[in-house]
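Hi L., both proteins are below.
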Amino acid sequence: MNSQIRLVLAIHNHQPIGNFEGVFEEAYKDSYEPFLNILGDYPEIPIALHTSGSLMEWLVDAHPEYIDRVRAMVERGQIEIIGGPFFEPILACIPGRDRIGQIREYSRYLRKLFGTDIRGMWVPERVWEQSFTSDIVQGGIEYTVLDDFHFRSAGYRDDQLNGYYLTEDEGRLLKIFPGSEPLRYTIPFADPQETINYLRGIYEANPNAVITFGDDGEKFGTWPGTKDHVYRDGWLRMFLDSLMANREWLKVTTPGEAVDHTSPKDKCYIADSSYREMTEWALPTDRQRELHNLTETHKHDADWHVLKSYIKGGFWRNFRVKYEESNDMYCRMLEVSDRLEALSQETDASEHRDILAAAKTELYRAQCNCSYWHGAFGGLYLPHLRNAVYKSLIAADNLLEKCARRESGWVAIDVADYNRDARQEIRLSNGRLVAYTSPSRGGHLYELDIRDTQHNLLATLNRRPEPYHETIRNAADKQHDHHDSDSTVSIHDMVRFKQPDLDRKIVYDNWMRKSLVDHFLRPRLTVEEFKRGEGELSDFVNGVYEPAIRRAADFVELQLKRNGQLGPYDISVQKRIHLAAEQGSNLEITYELDNLPAKIPVHFGIEFNFAGMAAGQSDRYYYNGNGEQIGQLETVQELSETSRIGLVDEWLGLDVSLEISQPADIWTLPIETISQSEGGFELVHQSCAVVPHWHITLPEGGRWSVTIRMGIDTSAAAARQLAAATTV
């Protein structure tokens, strides 16, 4: 037989925790099932298959017949199962102990499910740092797949990437296959012959090469336009037929077979990187634009193919700098992971083995990567994905409280650097709520967890500049110039507007959209001006507050105080947050304003935000002091002299109210981002801002106060859970 090059086809299928049931099912019908159907007709063509744990668990429950078919193909040697960290975390986003734990746990799960050893793993989003090598090997893994971009960033030329390499950390060795970027762009988008021609060129130069394709299975049916292209128009069958027709010189194989029958090319140390697009998304917005412009300017230069290998994007961990909300989730995850580790090391941990195991599973779920970053598509910008992360984190925290043997009616206040900014935050907690405040950042309440529904009311997201906002503006200008009112006109490469006039809704925030955000505003400021971030007159909104704490047997209290400037006047704001043991679902918040200028109108407002309560549905609404519905949660409200306002999400079974001791004018407004999704550019409701505000004119003395009682009622959710448990 003549020599053959080896082609490794590695398919990666993933759906994140928290994604809608319909999305799972649609991806199954459009990608996973039809791909397997056609592959089954070509038993001579093997592939490596990675399925994330979150998707695999769904498949086991929803489509056990799919699992049976994969198992049969494993048994006949057509599919090699690839493992990895169970719930698809970015390895750079979790502690080393959790990397090892997730990898081992998923390998055990897959061995039991498919009856096969797990030798390789998929690196989530191919985010790589060299130190991961040790953790991966300790997790029991022999090989993995990265991108050729990683190798080029480390100084390798394209003609050196036709094989696999050994890498090392602390003496532990791992084999790494460089996935081909040219194949990522031809499969499945180009005519199959283009791929064959590319591979033939490699064969003629290096007849013993190993070429690896590793990419998302969703591009075979779920990505826009691919279902018809891949299946109806027959691309996949034509591709597999082409592979069969060229078997004389082209051997389709698996990573395990390649490792067993070929030698590594050499040892190498891989640059910290990801796939090329991810490194671009990790850059700050202005630097993304610079990189894009640089590429467009020089991509036709004669030496561009050489220069581009020296151009690097950003570092993945800087997503936590770029998006403070990502850092908040990450730090909350670290808190749970650290506490779980500490409790697991205690001498009596065996008494709580089952509880600790359940808490670890919830922690691992919360480490699922999609909510921690943002690129061409959703991720961080999707509230239901962020809510799923917090749901698992709060569930894990609740389980750890059981291990701590908390008595009923407990309450606590703790001080630590919870968000890893070298400053102290304060955590107030009891059996019903957990509240985090940041004295160094406006004295904001930045996380508010409801334990029984595992919901963070402050899983908000700010409106920020993104590179594609310029695309939206440019496309809108073209539409307006042509007097085209069709909201679905193509923008670029089949990307569309999902709602009209998105360019007019692009707004950026000047402060974090959290709660207890203190505003001194221009008199007669309108709600529309406030929505655009206008009218701020003081430095309290982001200023540093001095904290003091008070503990008692049945309550805790945090006092936050700041002296600052309101124009030429020195004034003082003090706010107290009171959490009781017995009235566990209520926060009492008291404000005192001192040294206000006499006989001069002062416009003061307190901003609250409520996240995860969806908009656009009749069962999600505001109500007034009389309990009357006054509009859905996406509506702008301007209420006068009001002492009570509430928000209801009947689907969540959640009712949140503010009772105000000093009647206030109240604004409500939706906080909506403009982001990308697979269906196009879209408006996404992130939170409901509720802003009680007062026009205060005082005589000499200058002191004013108000008390706001935040009540959280989850009785509807509890009743629903009880009914569901009764019917089981």
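That was the first. Here is the second:
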Amino acid sequence: MEKDTSSILRNKNLLTRIAIVLLSFCWIGVSQSQIILDNSNLNTSVSDKAKKAEDPDYSSTIEEIIKSDDLNYSQIDKPLDIIDFTSSRWIIKFEVQNPGEARSLLFETARPITDRADLYEVDENKVVQRWNNGDMIPFDEKSKEHRKNLFKLDFEKGETKSFYLFLESDGEVINLPMIFWEKEKFYQTDYRNNLFHGFYFGVLALVVFIFFFFYLLLKEISFLYYILYVAFQFLLQFSLEGFTHQYFFPNQLYLTNASVLLSAAGTVFFVILYATSFLKIKERSKGWNNYFNYILLGLSIITVMVLIPGVTKAISYPIINLLSLVGTVSIIIAIFYFRRKGYAVNNAFSLGFIILIAGAVIFILGNLGVFGDANISQMSLKISSGLEILALSISMAGKYKELQEEKEKAQEKALENLETIVAQRTEKIEEQREKIEEQHKDMLDSIKYAQRIQGAILPTEEHVKEVIPESFIYYQPRDIVSGDFYFVENVTTKRGDKVSLFAAVDCTGHGVPGAFMSFLGNNYLMQSTKIDHINTTGEALDFLNQGIFKSLRIEEYVKRGVPIRDGMDLTLSGINHTAQKLYFSGAKNPILIITDAKNLEEWENVDAEKKIMTESIEEGKILIEVKGDRRPIGLYGKFSDEHFTTHVLPIHKGDLIYSYSDGYIDQFGGPRNKKFGTKRFKRLLLEICNSSMDEQYNKISNTLEEWKDGRENLDDILVMGVRV
């Protein structure tokens, strides 16, 4: 280039020379662009400030490159680049300048499923330092043990460093983020991502669990296909995020490498089986049935190809993406085809597949390089599959209704021909009765199994006695499983104070719906004890409230005009044994405290909404009802953004604290078949407050049984008593 430039300079006038010199400087400035570690380039991808070159036969070593770098580099033109399906080695060249103070950063690049991501720092034609990453090395040998490809880089003040990044793939797409993270910002982002992944994977696992019970109940094959589809969706996303390499196969590199393609093939295979079964394609159209069978055969062949390393596996990446795209889009076409033919297709089922396939198509097109932003394709499947759950759950309810309607039509037809075939129909009715009894038994067994699961999340008697030794819990579910549950846990404050937490929770409904709510409530309460920034009972209820809003998508439904009444009433109390204080927060429900009458003046000065009952002051006792906030968990409206109150209350040794749901006081009975009532309940507590906790339990139990006089429970019943 210097010879060409000097020749031009000799033959042009001064103006031309100046122009050429300026252009030369401009060209040099572009070709030697640096990554400047300032605010605009931190915590965001800066791939467009680097160059890339392809090494298809893996012939170049880092030593050869830095000695004589004659590779054909091209400037990357996107901040977040995508390299289409490739089995080549790609070499990324970049330079980093740190204009400010010395700093230590985390450099993130490539997807977690990239085979190799090796980084080299070079200076004066020699390798200063090297790092190794990727899912084709044992997890504990990665430069930083994290599911992502991370490198810890240190820069002195004003220092400039040069790097080469070697990326290797066996045929998969290579996404090329290049992010220089400030450590605190990275870990904050990673923490939020892990919370999202925990919730996302938890929802998928819960869907598998719930629909497994439907399958056991109905023996409908479409439910089994749906379960397998969701399970493979779980494995696919688990692999794409690098969790499979981290947790399942940290040292089994062959299995780690094959997991993405195998789970992708399984996902598409079973979603096609699920759709064809739900749409009854085999019975309705031989042509469509054969078409989908060919796609399934192709997926089966690709699955075998995945297991063969080398070229065979490399070409399976684009083929499986194309087959997945064709298969999923074909399902939508089939839905509209059968609608036009006059067949009834559940609207929620159609919507669920449109949402799912929209996300899947974006994901597959992203893998094919159509979308430039890799984040769009990576998040599409997660978001669409989450939205799909609601729609398909509704469609399954419609499926159940359809089965019931078919059964009713069969019964009507049987009645029309009763006179001529009474004996035959009697035999069939008997068979149906046996089938219904069998289904009822299956349902009862499933609910009893759910009871065992619910029992497992409740604190054991040993744990309760460890946390609150002087206590009793009177717990009577109306059905086999309950919407009421109790929570008992020890926590330690930042100052080292030991606090005994206990809660009495009344979820919306009872039976199976209430039990599902209790699973959510217990999970969020347990999470709240492990999060550093939650330090009060009110903050714990705020966390629970936000979790219920997100899990049930309450705001979304209310804005669409769908009435939502799902939530819970509860009291959460914490005894600080060091400070001799009681922390209390309530969602609609109050607590009752019985203390010595000498403490009356102290309680009159307490800043909390309360009622003091002095009927037993002559016996030396007073009863205080401390009210919680007047709204339940899960209420959407003008109180949605308000925080729950934390009351700090005085307690003394021997004081009694009672938490309860409304099942006891709302129970009908007595000579006039009236509610037991709050006043009668308070008087009962004052009568038994001097007894031992075991005697109090027996008195509360016996009193209610006498009151009911053989009547059934109207609601779940929960009463907790704790002596300080």
